[in-house]
Amino acid sequence: VQLQASGGGLVQAGGSLRLSCAASGNILRFSVMGWYRQAPGKQREPVAVITNDGVTNYSDSVKGRFTISRDNPKKTVYLQMNGLKAEDTAVYYCAANAVWWGQGTLVTVSS
Fold first, then answer.
1. 3-state secondary structure the chain
2. What is the pLDDT of residues 24-57, one digit of tens each?
């Protein structure tokens, strides 16, 4: 499967962005779709995941601010990011089963 992430950009602290991850195939094939991020000089970390049953899980740092969702017919997974902080600045990647990865989209939050 190919994953295409989009929606990144520059936003002021407190602002919002919505990331999209479009898959080339049926995402119901994968038990978990997720968003991960890698900040400069840091390791890649999980941000949010969603199972094909719709169960979600978030890292403590984004809980209450970010929402992951999926649209199976559109083969797309979304990450709604509200209340953005400077520390959310990173390249965001989507992944299927943490095995197939998209190319990443850069999110920059100015303080």
1. CCEEEECCEEEECCCCEEEEEEECCCHHHCCEEEEEEECCCCCCEEEEEEECCCCEEECCCCCCCEEEEEECCCCEEEEEECCCCHHHCEEEEEEECCCEECCCEEEEEEC
2. 999 999 999 999 999 999 999 999 999 999 999 9
